[in-house]
Amino acid sequence: MTKLILSNVFRFIALIILQVLILNYVYLGGYVLPFIYILGVLMLPTNLGKIPTLLVAFAAGVIIDLFCNIPGFHAFSCTMMGFARVLFGDRMLTQGDPDAIVEAPSIHQVPFQTFMGYAFLMSMVFCVTYGFVEAFSFGNFWMTLLSMLINTVVTWVLIMLFQLLVPSKK
Question: Could you list the residue range(s) of the whole structural domain that residue 157 is in?
Answer without folding.
Answer: 2-165
